Amino acid sequence: MVVMIRSEASQEKIEHLKKWLSDKELIVREFQGQEQCVLGLIGNTNCVDKDMLKSLDIVESVSDMTETFKASNRKMHPEDSVLEMPYGRGAMIGGGNFALIAGPCSVESREQITFVAKEVQAAGANFLRGGAFKPRTSPYDFQGMGSAGLELLLEARAATGLPIVTELMYLHNLDEFLQKEIDVIQIGARNTQNYDLLKELGKCTKVPILLKRGLAGTIKELLMSAEYIMANGNENVILCERGIRTYEQDYARNTLDLSAVPILKSLTHLPVIVDPSHATGRADLVPSMTLAAVAAGADGIIVEVHNDPANALCDGAQSLTPANFATLVKKIEKLREVLA
Amino acid sequence: MVVMIRSEASQEKIEHLKKWLSDKELIVREFQGQEQCVLGLIGNTNCVDKDMLKSLDIVESVSDMTETFKASNRKMHPEDSVLEMPYGRGAMIGGGNFALIAGPCSVESREQITFVAKEVQAAGANFLRGGAFKPRTSPYDFQGMGSAGLELLLEARAATGLPIVTELMYLHNLDEFLQKEIDVIQIGARNTQNYDLLKELGKCTKVPILLKRGLAGTIKELLMSAEYIMANGNENVILCERGIRTYEQDYARNTLDLSAVPILKSLTHLPVIVDPSHATGRADLVPSMTLAAVAAGADGIIVEVHNDPANALCDGAQSLTPANFATLVKKIEKLREVLA
Amino acid sequence: MVVMIRSEASQEKIEHLKKWLSDKELIVREFQGQEQCVLGLIGNTNCVDKDMLKSLDIVESVSDMTETFKASNRKMHPEDSVLEMPYGRGAMIGGGNFALIAGPCSVESREQITFVAKEVQAAGANFLRGGAFKPRTSPYDFQGMGSAGLELLLEARAATGLPIVTELMYLHNLDEFLQKEIDVIQIGARNTQNYDLLKELGKCTKVPILLKRGLAGTIKELLMSAEYIMANGNENVILCERGIRTYEQDYARNTLDLSAVPILKSLTHLPVIVDPSHATGRADLVPSMTLAAVAAGADGIIVEVHNDPANALCDGAQSLTPANFATLVKKIEKLREVLA
Amino acid sequence: MVVMIRSEASQEKIEHLKKWLSDKELIVREFQGQEQCVLGLIGNTNCVDKDMLKSLDIVESVSDMTETFKASNRKMHPEDSVLEMPYGRGAMIGGGNFALIAGPCSVESREQITFVAKEVQAAGANFLRGGAFKPRTSPYDFQGMGSAGLELLLEARAATGLPIVTELMYLHNLDEFLQKEIDVIQIGARNTQNYDLLKELGKCTKVPILLKRGLAGTIKELLMSAEYIMANGNENVILCERGIRTYEQDYARNTLDLSAVPILKSLTHLPVIVDPSHATGRADLVPSMTLAAVAAGADGIIVEVHNDPANALCDGAQSLTPANFATLVKKIEKLREVLA
């Protein structure tokens, strides 16, 4: 740890601080610059509250040289993680195994989910997504079909063999998710820092967790949330960039931060996927943003595909039609060949 | 609800949409502008998914004329809410009752919390704050004293009679908080959209909930989170502005959004307080930001006050010393007199 | 124009407003919803100050149905613009003509700029970039070589035939830029709303203007700045996404907003290019972000390539080496083939 | 300057860097931490490009210990600057002299500006504001009355004796501003980094410059822009917080960053004022935000006051009525007494 002292700090206060640090059994080395003094701390710096240090009036800044990311850190684990699905349904994610996760935003009916599942499978998807529990900003909005929706997902899985990805919102549903052998448990952007949930996902299961970046979450926070799961015992985490909240709100719901893909890939061995549907909120932007995500090096994408091709109302929805999706998959495949 | 149609929309698609809306038993009125068609919808518009409508290719925008905030809405409840403490410890919040909530960030020891409690009471505080369960971005950081810390808070309460405000992080601790008669349950910025927790706080208790704005939460989201608690049965919610995440990160931890105070006061009857300590992260900014919050019309403030006046290291910490706090309270009182 | 009236507005005030609007020779149509009144205005709404209307206490919102973008609007000009270089140096931008603009951040010496020019040309670049006038946040920092740097760029152009792209910072240098037949005049992010400069670029020349998005500029503002140039007579504008300012500042200088590419392409016929070097500030992120920009549909890229391959210090700089650039160009070409 | 080396850097590269730095006549001191090496540089570090250093692959971060702010720095000039108006019209700003700047957004007519000038003077204003040249995002919007508006301002000044504050947009108008003895020249948010303009304002005049923070400008950038003026010869700069661009856009135009006031006051000796009218865009928020600005320690405020009390349409406009303003001034005065 390196502590920069403000130039106006009195020698007395600096000595006071050095003594306090030495008392914590740290070795303190002083470097006197032309204008400023710097203290280098050697030893177990966990005993020092970095925020407290920073807030001292004589301290200008504190730099931590130890790694804040441990389990997820690529330095500790240089190879890409490859996650295998736990219930023998085959698909893998990471290390060259591209995840093509597709399906409707919400499960609406047996016909709908089974129809879409078959369509996306035919187009090349290797995972089926679909929401049974929906996080809604308003308590007065539709909250999803719940357990009945999960059952319909199981039926669609049985019909196609596709492993399923669905969101867990409430801790009390975790048992149900495990009993129903949900293949990948998704944690939504509002729960990225719900440490209660994250800890239990670490303790109770080895099922892969698809962890979305927070609504305005930093890259660091996303990794630290992954650490909450991993430090508690479940190393199978998939990170998902899904757009961040910025001042630009006129033409897309969020700003898709594609540089997060290579940045995360350099920091961690975990797979990194992208959700262009929620990021943009506009179906017409999904194909170009999907291809950009692939070019940026993503390990997979999760896109919304909706049925109802006969209903003209769906033309412009956030979701792609199965036909649009099939066209997109062909382009993804060509792109991946070229980039390989 | 008013739906603006894009100028290039075909008449056929507009008719298709009008029929679809009529089928939902809505009255559809068409207004044909010079360049654009607008549809006005009358009836129960809850049956229509606004997001879906917006995403149609022929739709430019959708405006909802119904109120999204219900229980918290000042229109439905023009008078300021006045919240009484449930366990007979006297202090009230709202409607002219100013909340002066002070105490250390974390409970550290019996001596510390009791000492600070007495000091802030002597200075004029009417609530004691102190964290027993601490939300930390990293799983490797100190997570607070937990239940032992709660016990120490009870002792400090017994010694002073001050009602206590402390953060609930985990649902499984709610019973303990209720049994220990915690006077005000604080929900931190990372849990503002933890709907699981919010619902239970609505169902299981009438204890006042101090709800902090999310790390990068909108004013709308804060109110909708209050709705989650209120719609489930607990109308005693206190809103708290605590700084928002912006691009400006060089000199303060967050950007304190004081205009949120008059905006919230115009939208809702709930009390609105301000946390200048977490917003700025710098003790030297706390006094001026506290006074600004009072001038902006806040119903109270929650500030960090730490003991340890003998330790010179604390000069510049995020927390005020008891002496600084006492000086600040005198200024607050003068300010409130003048503004009354 | 559509004006939404607040539900609590008195009938008297609404009538007052309607009269005021009618007096401006607008036809006012009233639509009475269940909860709210809406006014539709037909006629020349330019005579009404939209901001003033919005700020009336009885007005909830105002929607403008007329197009704010005129000259740049794709609706008025559905085909992609193709910009030809004015001085007969051949390269074109837009409508399938991909711009590969490369070169050093700053012109440093004759050897440097001529060496890099030849290297990037050999790798496939069709434009040479290089800064002679550098915008610096601090007045105490190096401000570029100035006119001497321009001369060196002309020499590099003479040696290679590559058209040159360089930044104009000051109005008083415009004559010099025109006399020296600078092929593309770049306007930097700090000058995107320097209307003085934009107007003159519209009046005095037909040379293509490479207009960068502001430091925290919206897509609308970028287009309106293009309008300032176009409305004054110069339709040859190239838009450039170069990263926006967001709360995420730990791993890259800015957040590259690649969804701006398809959004801009849908709104305007002007060419849209991407600057991954300034957006990220990290050479290791430039290749993946360049490929992502191509996949997102950009009409070109502008990247920093620096000489000095012998100096190991340059490994990780923001600039690519000529060799890295050559490798990248090959990938871009393959990608463009596949996406065609 | 302190350079943190990445833990994985090879010794060879570190030696290479040390040699390169020594060759620049810097003294290089090495501090070897447990996990990381740190280099301290002593001497004239201006010869090193900090950005280049940062981008080296072996460098983790670079901290500059020299002061980036020079002329504006409070360390060099501990006393508050007190700015006197240059043309003998009396009012001062800074060091306890509170600036109460009021007037309409735009000059509209002789009657309007003279009427408002008299009203705000009677209420206690000591400066008159009014825009003759208006910066507009769109080239198709009204751009102000121009020189004719300036003339009307002069008449209002003659009628009241109030010094005037008005915006300079274009360099070519500077002579006119100086000839007409404009008392305070305002530089708007879009021109905060128009270095061309800033340099000339430094070279050509000693008239006080009211410099607004950029649309999404940092505190550092605002100070550096002041340096551009001061380093070129004009030390009379007034800084103005006017709201910043954030994700919160539903209820106010910008987010007023009041913590910028005490932060700027600690960093610089220049006066700091606040513009609550442009920050919020809502007249109903102006009084509370004005009082909050005063409580935060501002040296003045600049608010919009509009005539037209007879026209009911103006009730809710961004501007205060003269009567509202007079009420507000009384509160400001009381507040200042209490805070003194």
Note the main attributes of this structure:
homotetramer; 340 residues; alpha/beta; four-stranded antiparallel β-sheet; 11 helices; 14 strands; 17% strand
Q: What can you see in these coordinates?
A:
The structure is a homotetramer of 340-residue chains. About 2% of the residues of chain A have low confidence. Chain A starts with a strand and ends with a helix. In chain A, helix 3 packs parallel to helix 4, helix 3 runs parallel beside helix 11 and helix 10 runs parallel beside helix 11. In chain A, strand 7, helix 3 and strand 8 form a beta-alpha-beta unit. The radius of gyration of chain A is 24 Å and the shape is elongated. Chain A is of the alpha/beta class and 340 residues long. Chain A is built from eleven helices and 14 strands. Chains in contact: A-B, A-C, A-D, B-C, B-D, C-D. At the B-D interface, helix 8, helix 10 and helix 11 of B face helix 8, helix 10 and helix 11 of D.
Structural shape of chain A: elongated
Main interface: chain pair and counts: C-D, 54 and 55 residues
> Averaged pLDDT of chain A, please?
88
Biggest sheet architecture of chain A = 8 strands, parallel, barrel
Assembly level: homotetramer
Please state how the strands of the largest beta sheet of chain A are arranged side by side.
7-8-9-10-11-12-13-14
The helix/strand order of chain A is EHEEHEEEEHEHEHEHEHEHEHHEH
Q: How far is the N terminus from the C terminus of chain A? A: 40 Å
The helical percent of chain A reads 25-40%
Number of helices of chain A: 11
- Beta-strand content of chain A: 15-25%
Total DSSP E strands of chain A: 14
Structural class of chain A: alpha/beta
Low-confidence stretches of chain A: 309-316
Radius of gyration of chain A: 24 Å
